[in-house]
Write a structure and sequence with these properties.
- The protein is of the alpha+beta class.
- It has 2 domains: about 60 residues, Winged helix-like DNA-binding domain superfamily/Winged helix DNA-binding domain (Arc Repressor Mutant, subunit A); about 170 residues, Beta-Lactamase (2-Layer Sandwich), CATH 3.30.450.40.
- Helix content is about 45%, strand content about 20%.
- It has a 6-stranded antiparallel sheet. A two-stranded antiparallel ribbon has the order 1-2.
- A hairpin with a 2-residue loop joins strand 7 and strand 8.
- The longest helix has 25 residues.
- It is globular and about 55 Å long.
Length: about 260
């Protein structure tokens, strides 16, 4: 927790983020373990969030999960005429043209947090969930989000080394940094079977005032990744990047 954060407020957000990241919900003990807090200190917060319907409780499993009002707030935000709504339109356009899944993510520590997704119409496509987190070094989105870091910043972000999800995951910080330098020039990040077998992904960073706010990607099975499809995806992402960055500057909004 940052020294500038208000602890009770941070605990509320930690609980909501932990539940959003869980697949089947958490018990009170599991919530406490996930956010590194004593059960006694979070019980009244969890009780209030449940009473206010921001989280729900399953009597059969004794597990909490995200509640209806949390979904309602998120839905309200997504319907507003803001940069996120504009990005959603851009993502739908990319999927319409490429027929592949498009995702947006933010950097959360040294992990990628998936915040938006438009599914592919193809019968064989990426299976992922909004709210999921993956190690940044294993994904194209993560590389796009990291690409402006200098070597020392990159090392500091991974004090325990680089995670490994597959045999192709990059675990050498020097190799990763060389890729990031190339992404700065091309604006295109790529990974092949580094997070999921049989899939590849391309991504671009989204900047405002020379600071990366988020990243946008297209993921597809390797068997559909021929030269023509890859060129199409790269062009779609770069075009969307320019339009989104222009809108952020025009409206003075960040993601």
């Amino acid at each position: 927790m940052s020294t500038n954060e208000h602890r009770p407020t941070a605990r509320i957000l930690d609980i909501l983020e932990a539940l959003a990241d869980s697949k089947n919900g958490y018990t009170l003990t599991e919530i406490a373990n996930a956010i590194g807090a004593p059960k006694s200190s979070i019980f009244p917060i969890v009780h209030t969030l449940h009473d206010r319907r921001y989280i729900s409780f399953d009597n059969n499993t004794s597990k909490y999960s995200i509640g209806i009002l949390t979904h309602t707030i998120g839905s309200t935000f997504s319907k507003k005429d803001n940069v996120v709504a504009f990005i959603d339109t851009e993502m739908k356009h990319i999927v319409e043209i490429s027929s592949e899944a498009c995702q947006m993510a933010l950097l959360d520590g040294n992990e990628v947090l998936y915040t938006s997704k438009v599914d592919s119409p193809q019968p064989i496509s990426l299976i992922s969930d909004v709210g999921k987190k993956l190690p940044a070094n294993c994904t194209a989105l993560g590389k796009a989000l990291l690409c402006d870091l200098d070597k020392n910043e990159l090392i500091g972000l991974f004090p325990n080394g680089l995670a490994k999800l597959t045999e192709n995951s990059i675990t050498d910080i020097d190799v990763l940094y060389e890729q990031l330098l190339e992404i700065r020039d091309t604006q295109i990040a790529n990974e092949v079977e580094e997070s999921t077998e049989y899939s590849t992904c391309y991504a671009v960073p989204l900047r405002k005032n020379n600071r990366i706010n988020a990243a946008l990607s297209v993921t597809l099975p390797i068997f559909r990744a021929d030269t023509e499809k890859i060129d199409l995806i790269k062009n779609l992402l770069l075009e969307a990047q320019q339009r989104i960055q222009s809108i952020m500057i025009e409206r003075n909004e960040e993601i």
